[in-house]
């Protein structure tokens, strides 16, 4: 966060010892970089100059990050590169809500590169760094409309990796835009958190000064083009209307049975279920009662006896008939049944197919084996995919292209590594001991010390956790554990 605040806007150097004040369109209050503090933060030149026309390459770079700025600009290439490097630190926190991210970037894009910078930037103090005059403090006039819009779009954005609000990390848990701007504009001590120069955010400017607040359009988190999820923007009309509609639907019909409130849908389903059970039980009892009647039993037995006698006679008859006569009888019986065309075709096909399989078993098995082998040839190119993003989107999809653009132009996403510990069950009682005990807490302290002390050799360099971890608040790694409670 502190690096975000070290944005560099400077102005072309002059031999004057005090900055020349001029507030008009197409004029800069600061241009270029005039020095570097002892902690590495660059600071700007406090001299005004006309806005300059960037070359095509720089213009395209500025457009990719600051689409609202066109034509002349008030930032050099070095300033813009510093701006891009610093805002990359904030993007992982705000990327979940495009509207918030866009407003946040616009705030610093206008501060750094706007061609009308002098209309809302006023250099109030200068410092001497390395023998050069540099900006020590500025007034940044920002309209209440943009400020409130910026805060409202970002106040509920969640940073999923830390399971907390992004405002807790980027704004020191600011409750309103004034507190957030105060945190952003804080001048950092050497090596500390904050901006390389003091930024005093002002809502209004006097008419005599010729200045006016910066008032670019602020996107709402419920904006259709840059909409955020309901988790990051619960105040969105889409989220509120959908939740109210859902509530109305859920509470649209209910009945009170005694002291119990029952929804109509649940009651109807219960009644239908009871009716279905009664019908099934009644059907079963009816048939069981019918089977117990003497007439039904006599009829069933006579059918079985007559069927057995008929089968016995037919069997004796079939044994005395030649094969071709049996086939003719089968065909005659089939014709008497009067099968449909489809049934007749399927009957003939499977009868012929069964006869062929019975006469040529080796040929059928060999052919089946060859077909299976041919269908399995694709397994030669089988490759186990271990990258989760490739399991969800295709390499040529829009999402893959956007991710590639994001990774090449902005900061990569942070990956959370988790270490989960548990207690071992007792062999005697087969129960686990309490996780919260003095011995376990002491053990957790030892584990965290060992994790923090891990070192690894990477390309000949010893890398520690401090070199690769996320540091949202200056020098400390973002580590979450029960030891922080």
Automatic annotation (TrEMBL):
GO CC annotations on file: membrane
Residue ranges occupied by any Niemann-Pick C1 N-terminal domain in the UniProt entry: 26-259
Pfam families the record matches: NPC1_MLD, NPC1_N
Localization terms from the record: Membrane
Record GO terms (molecular function): sterol binding
Highest rank taxon of the organism: Eukaryota
The keyword Disulfide bond appears for this protein: no
BP GO annotations: sterol transport
UniProt key word Hydrolase: no
Transmembrane feature ranges: 267-286, 361-380
UniProt cross-references to InterPro entries, sorted A to Z: NPC1_MLD, NPC1_N
Keyword line: Membrane, Transmembrane, Transmembrane helix
Domain NPC1 middle luminal per the UniProt entry, residue ranges: 403-484
Membrane-related topology note: Multi-pass membrane protein
Record protein name field: Niemann-pick C1-like protein
Higher taxonomy: Eukaryota, Viridiplantae, Streptophyta, Embryophyta, Tracheophyta
